[in-house]
Write a structure and sequence with these properties.
This protein has five helices and four strands; from the N terminus they run E-H-E-H-H-H-E-E-H. The strands form two sheets. The chain has a two-stranded parallel sheet. It has a two-stranded antiparallel ribbon with strand order 3-4. The protein has one domain: Glutaredoxin (3-Layer(aba) Sandwich). With about 120 residues, it is of the alpha+beta class. About 30% of the residues lie in helices and about 15% in strands. The protein starts with 10 loop residues before the first strand and ends in a 7-residue tail after the last helix.
Length: about 120
């Protein structure tokens, strides 16, 4: 998933600063990564750990299998692989004006949807 470099985006990772920077460079992302190995931000936003079905369900298996066929491999997890992700639009006053909580491990929101929510659909 690539985002326009001018979009005000930050990623949260359960990684050390070194691991987060290595991933950011590999992904060629111009956006900063905030390191949260203790999952404090995840807890603050009410993001829960996954159930077995959310990690190993048929939809997750099918998406993972399809990705493997396209040459994408799952690497060694960094952080808690059971932690469910989310996307939050936080206004300058600190209020969350929009959120997306993944339903399972294969539920990844598109860059186009995030860009649209940020008011820049042409930035996707």
């Amino acid at each position: 998933m690539r985002f326009h470099p001018q979009l005000p985006i930050a990623f949260v990772a359960m990684a050390s600063p070194e691991d987060a920077e290595a991933f950011r460079l590999k992904a060629r992302s111009p956006h900063p990564f905030l390191c949260d190995p203790d999952k404090e931000l995840y807890a603050a936003f009410g993001l829960r750990e996954a159930t077995g079905k959310q990690v190993f369900g048929p939809r997750v298996f099918a998406r993972g299998f399809g990705a493997t066929l396209r040459g994408h491999w799952v690497g060694k997890p960094i952080g808690d692989p059971w932690q469910m992700p989310g996307v939050f639009l936080i206004e300058r006053d600190g209020q969350v004006s929009w959120e997306y909580r993944s339903g399972d491990a294969a539920d990844n929101i598109s860059a186009a949807t995030v860009s649209e929510q940020l008011g820049c659909p042409e930035c996707a």
